[in-house]
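W.,

You were right to be curious about this one. When I first looked at the sequence I had no strong expectations either way, so I just let the prediction run and decided to look at it fresh. Below is the sequence, 153 residues in total, followed by the output.
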Amino acid sequence: MFNAFFGYRWLRYSRRVTRRAHLQLQRLDARCVPHALALTPMVRASGPDPFISCEPPGWFAANGEAEPQLAVDPTNANHLVGVWNQSGHGIVAGVSVNGGNSWQEVPISGMSTCTGGVWPVINDPWVSFAANGAISARSASPPTAIPIRRNGR
């Protein structure tokens, strides 16, 4: 008795059931999507480490920016928010309201001891927009979430 189930054929011999996988190649859809994006000159999105005075002397990650994430406002494609881990001592947001042509750097308060929180070191930042344009920044380790007020609303 042969049955097809999600690309597998099942063979049944009396009481014993044997599963054999039959690999199948499938053609991928074309991913060519027309868009209006074009390369522009590079723009600086961050500046000097805002937590340098909070870091211990000789901190190995001083002026280090890591783990960048970017989110686009679903209600306004020109409103971008990027976050990154700044030297392990806090999360900084870069905000653009003109499609990335210029950026304003804003340390997010309440995430680490350097910004009024309880954790000495913070990692794995994430930023997202809600459907209404509200912004939320998070850290996965330690788990922390901060709602950020939306400019102009």
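Here's what jumped out at me. The chain has a mean pLDDT of 76. And, maybe more interesting for your project: The chain has no helices and ten strands.

Coffee later to discuss?

I.
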